[in-house]
């Protein structure tokens, strides 16, 4: 019992063990040692006068790696100890090499994963740059058209206001004028006149957001940038949040 407690804290390189002992025989000691994970590979040589085939089989089943019968020859015992210690040292070195190989494999896998991630990011960057480039032209002419449309609407409203003032100043609206006013009232022209500019403003605002997303995509892609250079972290945060904002706005509150 004392020996088992001792080797649990300070494992030896090899154990010489008798079979016939008071309280606990050598077979039980072998089994107890093999049940301890840290001692599972510890070389155990049984050294006993109980040298029969059944004892040898029982010893090997319990976990011994060798069996020497009594009376023994000292030189033979020392030779077997030397061989088993050499084998044990070889296993230890092999285990260390295996652990080193596993660590190397782990690092290789991590490096490969990082390379794959880098390639994915580069592909995403190229895709983002291509999308941004393709969207720039339609965004440009839609923005220009909205500006022109705003000018046309102001002119059109001016024409209608002039028509209304002329129709009212005659004092005797003709039948055609009355028909026009009836049509304007039927289609709630007063509301349309107010709402049409709100719609135009909202369209410009939406287009500006698309333009900002396109610019942020170009910024995100960093295509063509090979050298190290200073980066604006605030701008990076803002552009990233702008790209993913639709996913975030219903789920969380962002604090910078």
Based on the model shown, name its key terms.
3-stranded parallel sheet, mainly alpha, 256 residues
What are the SSEs and their pairings?
Blueprint: H1 2-9, E1 15-17, H2 26-34, E2 44-48, H3 53-62, E3 66-69, H4 74-169, H5 175-186, H6 189-221, H7 233-248
Parallel strand pairs: 1-2, 2-3
Helix pairs in contact: 4-6, 6-7
Concise overview:
The protein is mainly alpha-helical and 256 residues long. The protein has helices spanning 2-9, 26-34, 53-62, 74-169, 175-186, 189-221, 233-248, and strands at residues 15-17, 44-48, 66-69.
> Which secondary-structure class do the elements indicate?
mainly alpha
Helix content: over 70%
Strand order of the biggest β-sheet: 1-2-3
Number of strands: 3
Q: Termini, distance in Å?
A: 63 Å
Query: Which ranges are low-confidence, i.e. pLDDT below 50, for 5 or more consecutive residues?
Result: none
Content of β-strand:
under 5%
Tell the overall outline.
Answer: rod-shaped
Largest sheet: 3 strands, parallel
Work out the radius of gyration.
Answer: 45 Å
Quaternary status: single chain
Q: What's the mean pLDDT score?
A: 85
Helical run tally: 7
Order of helices and strands: HEHEHEHHHH
